[in-house]
Design brief:
Blueprint (H helix, E strand, L loop, with lengths): L9 H14 L4 H7 L5 E5 L5 E7 L2 E6 L6 E5 L1 H8 L5 H6 L11 H16 L31 H11 L1 E4 L5 H17 L7 E6 L4 E6 L6 H4 L5 H4 L10 E2 L8 E5 L4 E3 L15 H4 L3 E6 L11 E2 L19 E2 L7 E5 L4 E2 L12 E8 L26 H8 L3
Parallel strand pairs: 1-4
Antiparallel strand pairs: 1-2, 2-3, 5-14, 6-7, 6-10, 7-9, 8-16, 9-16, 11-14, 11-16, 12-13, 12-15
Length: about 400
């Protein structure tokens, strides 16, 4: 049963609950990472209470005060309660400008500590991208690059996605159907307007504004109907129980992603991330994003990569290292499903291709709204009059006091 975040007391948590959590969690890998990080303090702006986190060869340490901290993240008690309850995230706090005045130091350190804090607060293992095998219910190791046939047993699909966090199914839609979807996707892109809060924009190396995503794909009837397509509804038993498809006519009900080469500004070539990275994991997850590929997803045309099993762990900054993980071997007409909390990335495609990856996304979740009553956690990304979504590096520079 999920705990009410308002029940968390800052001092009691650090003095009683956190030591108990460490007794039952696999924290050694996280401590090795934390030893390389400068000490971090979290200070409550309404009470002035603070604790500084550090690690050495003996393990984790936290002590009252902020005197020995290299970076101090200052926030209200409700925000810390959300962070400790896996409802708030560091990117969500920074993109939303939620930290209180008085935060000090390099807030990039705060971002580096986030996966470690998730291990401490929630008992998650720290993900090792170089070695994380996945197994089926019989204890047999699974090939993480498996692609399922469209008529494969759905129970086998479910077992795979529960272990890997993602699933790829080939040859679901015909070329004739894809031609209709492509035309609808292009029309929606042509009608998108920068700053309309229904699309994401960036700029290429020549300074041209490029629409990289639209959030109103359900305006096209042929795309809105996809939630009811029998080939899609057949896959629902592979998902966690209790999930429901979004309203296709709402913003974010049907999303379309357009990959383009040479993007220099905006958040187009997504780094390693989880879709609940702006907040709401404990409220929203498990949830599933389903992608329909209108063009091949290759390294040249724009691939999608996953870290197998990472939905069951906490993963740190991958620094754009695309050699890790598994490429979704999705051809045009393929479908993929992934847990919103599995780590995945979309590296930049190469110029000179005839087509680039375009995907139609459907979302399945238990909840329609955020834990604080908002419409969508990713709304914190919107608001730029040019429709651009800032990269985290730019956000950190803006929020670093020093």
């Amino acid at each position: 049963m999920q705990r009410n975040p308002t029940e968390l007391d800052f001092n009691q948590f650090h003095q009683t609950e956190l030591p108990q959590l460490l007794q039952t969690s696999d924290w050694q890998q996280a401590a090795q990472v934390a030893r390389k990080l400068p000490p971090l303090a979290i200070e409550l702006s309404d009470s002035g209470q603070s604790y500084t986190y550090s690690a050495d060869e003996q393990g984790f340490h936290w002590q009252p005060g902020r005197e020995n901290a290299a970076t101090t993240a200052r926030m209200s008690t409700p925000l810390w309660q959300g962070l400790a309850s896996d409802l708030e995230t560091v990117p969500g706090l920074l993109y939303g400008d939620k930290l209180s005045p008085g935060s000090e130091g390099d807030l990039g350190v705060f971002g580096q500590w986030e996966p470690v804090l998730r291990c401490l607060y929630h008992g998650l293992p720290y993900y090792r991208p170089d070695h994380w095998p996945i197994f089926n219910s019989a204890g047999e190791e699974i090939d993480p690059g498996t692609v399922f046939a469209a008529d494969a047993d759905v129970s086998d699909m479910r077992e795979f996605i529960e272990a890997a966090g993602y699933l790829v199914i080939g040859d679901v839609f015909s070329e004739q159907e894809l031609a209709v979807f492509r035309e609808a996707a292009q029309t929606l892109r042509d009608h998108a307007v920068a700053g309309d809060n229904r699309s994401w924009w960036g700029k290429n190396s020549e300074g041209n504004a490029i629409c990289t995503r639209v959030l109103n794909g359900g305006d096209a009837p042929e795309l809105a109907r996809l939630y009811d397509d029998p080939r899609i509804t057949r896959l629902i038993p592979a998902m966690p129980e209790g999930l429901r498809g979004n309203n296709p006519h709402a913003v974010d009900g049907v999303t379309i992603i357009y990959k383009m080469p040479g993007m220099a500004e905006g958040l187009s070539d997504l780094p390693w991330h989880r879709d609940c990275g702006m907040g709401g994991h404990a409220h929203m997850c498990p949830a599933i994003n389903l992608s329909i590929y209108l063009h091949d997803a290759t390294p040249e045309r724009g691939e999608l990569r996953f870290l197998p099993g990472s939905h069951r762990a906490s993963c740190g900054n991958m620094d754009g290292r695309k050699e890790f993980g598994v490429r979704a071997d999705a051809k045009a007409g393929s479908v993929s499903l992934h847990y919103t909390d599995v780590m995945h990335a979309a590296p930049p495609p190469q110029p000179g291709q005839d087509n680039y990856r375009t995907s139609v996304l459907l979302n399945y979740t238990r909840h329609k709204h955020t834990h604080d009553g908002g419409r969508h956690y990713n709304d914190v990304l919107l608001g730029d009059e040019e429709g651009q979504i800032q990269h985290m590096d730019s956000v950190l520079k803006e929020h670093s006091p020093n």
